[in-house]
């Protein structure tokens, strides 16, 4: 006889796919017999449900006796009518209830002296309206309509492109507006900074000095200084009275992607690919702080006069609030799932918005409470955004899309598409930077087709020609 070892057959190892199919088959064998079957009825819940239906549907019948007494003036008829209405309500309730149901709870009848025109209360505590000749035919007519808590958007005129400015020889990557609202400057991949007249769009000055593309610009409100930053790791301070560089801030280990000026202090903030937001003293060129904590490129930044004085967004999908006194993180927002490439602070409210490829989100300052998402998704990489005092938020995409939003409601009221200029590829339709002028009536976009475009509201538009097509979200919890 063969031994026990010879009698055993070799066992083949089972693959993960085969084991998954086995588990699925066992689950189907276990749960498929009960699939599609309803749970057994609960008598108590059925009794409460029918009682509510009876009171909601036939509660008005109780006051018919009062109307008959006013019309006929016969008190005897009132009692008979009350008994008749009660019996009719019971008959209707019996027709509704199930065969196994034995009792139905009905609201008590009002006293004989009660005015029939006054509203009475049902068993569930809801107010039953007085009887009328036209009684409601369904329970939906008696249910209180709760209005949507979502704010209705204000009407805004659509924006249109009215001017195209050419002059740069590379992608236009950054923009800053003069505090006097008379000129603006743009930085480009052609390594130059150009200053343009805001009214006539004429070129006034060209500044050279960077050796790589210029990604950030800022004009000081307190001094005659212009600050620029680029991929050459340099941060420069230009004196606009002499039109030359008077200071350079050294310290970044890689390209500088964004910069901002403190509104009340002589401080400059820069962020770049080294994942650090650096704080500089404008006068002494000394680095006050190196705000570390991000795990990837710091690509967006804005400042405030009060805490949090600095807010940064990064490719690591987080937004950080910084304490300038201690040089540490105050809070970290992790609501986004992709890179936060742009942020916009509202000029009047204590709120700001941040943009990512997943969505545009609004937050409340100073704590950073999440308010809501915008009601549409641009579904592209958003490079820049800005908001004016009228509550018009604009976001610019990598595919040349320019979307306009109502700030309070998050309603997207216009979707524009930039037109690539002749001589450029269709893939060069991206918008890299944008800004409103100080009045908020003109919008300037910097684009990949080497042009600068200016936008304004359509003066011929009216609420009749461009109505608001708004539907509040069904699931408010998502927002």
Automatic annotation (TrEMBL):
- The WD repeats extend over 165-206, 207-248, 249-290, 291-332
Q: Name one Pfam family in it.
A: WD40
Gene Ontology CC: one annotated term:
Prp19 complex
List the GO biological process terms. mRNA splicing, via spliceosome
Q: What ranges does the record give for the region Disordered, renumbered to this chain?
A: 66-85, 122-141, 458-479
Classification via InterPro entries: Prp46/PLRG1-like, WD40/YVTN_repeat-like_dom_sf, WD40_PAC1, WD40_repeat_CS, WD40_repeat_dom_sf, WD40_rpt
Query: Which UniProt keywords are listed?
Result: Repeat, WD repeat
Q: Which CDD domains does the record cross-reference, listed alphabetically?
A: WD40 (cd00200)
Q: Which Gene3D superfamilies match?
A: YVTN repeat-like/Quinoprotein amine dehydrogenase
For the keyword Repeat, the answer is: yes
Q: Which family does it belong to?
A: Belongs to the WD repeat PRL1/PRL2 family.
Annotated PANTHER family: PLEIOTROPIC REGULATOR 1 (PTHR19923:SF0), WD40 REPEAT PROTEINPRL1/PRL2-RELATED (PTHR19923)
Q: How is this protein named in the record?
A: Protein pleiotropic regulatory locus 1
* Organism of this sequence: Colocasia esculenta (Wild taro)
